[in-house]
Amino acid sequence: MLLQSITERTWYLPGANNLAIVTTGAGGAIAIDTGLDKDTGRLLRKALEAAGLTLRAIINTHHHADHIGGNSYLLRNIPDVQVYAPPLEAALIEHPILEPTYLNHGASPAAALRTRWLLAQGTPVHQLIGDLERINKGDTFDWQVAGESFEVISLPGHSIAQVGVAYDGVCFAADGFFGSAVLAKHGVPYAHDIAAQLASLERLAARDDAWFLPGHGPLVAHEDMQAMLAVNRAAITQSSTSVLRALRQPGTLDAITGRVLRALGQELAGIPQYVIFAGAIAAHLTYLEQQGLVQAMLEESGITWQSNVTR
Ligand SMILES: [Zn+2]
Fold first, then answer.
1. pLDDT digits over 228-276, tens only?
2. For the whole model, what pTM was predicted?
3. Radius of gyration over alpha carbons of the chain, in Å?
4. Of 106, 181, 245, 250, which one has the fewest beta carbons inside 10 Å?
5. 150 within 8 A of 166, measured Cβ to Cβ
6. CA–centroid distance, residue 249 to ligand 1 (Å)
């Protein structure tokens, strides 16, 4: 597959995980995320070879397995590649066992969670991007990667310290927003922190880049971006409403997750997809709790959530 040009110095391989490339001087290239596994790593390597480019660095926007899974193959097959990632995300990239661990209540992951969807091969992170304080504040700042200056956009929310990067008029937004088909497929877009996720959408809305590339979904032109962000905002707020509606009776996280799945008519492919979905529901419960709309109590059946909304 050949790299598709966005602007003179930005390229991508469209797919379930968009694989983006920035070209630097002297035939160099910087990859922005590496896809799910060694197959996406190989795809990137072949595309770079066909274009006569040498990979110098990888920017990982966040630690999710479908964004870092190609790192290991690329590091093994191309010399002197430097990995850049935001703090905290970097720790999870270096120790990927932490993703299925946090999805398993902090316990050693059950067999069903030790899949490539949740457990990538770890690689070193050579350079940190920014610091947590700036990312949590939502700052935008310049950062040097392999001698090139990138604008870093703090996009926490989907993940704990996710960033996007902008270069040559293109904003690589990672999972800061999703394409419409992806939103429809997942029902509740995955998130760690809903308030931060919504704030990150506003940060993208204020940008004047010519193009926006999400991790999953088609490339978006500037004039279509406000509509795209509105669809994302609606998916998140509707998810919160669905969770609140599911609390007409109190329930445990599992019970609420089941009710939301039924209400949305969603079917999940397996246990990995379930724990991700339930994780997003848990993020919405925390968000609703922050607004004083729900509260948690310990009951016989476990941690039970109830709505404070009078009905
Ligand atoms: Zn992600």
1. 999 999 999 999 999 999 999 999 999 999 999 999 999 998 999 999 9
2. 0.96
3. 20
4. 106
5. yes
6. 31
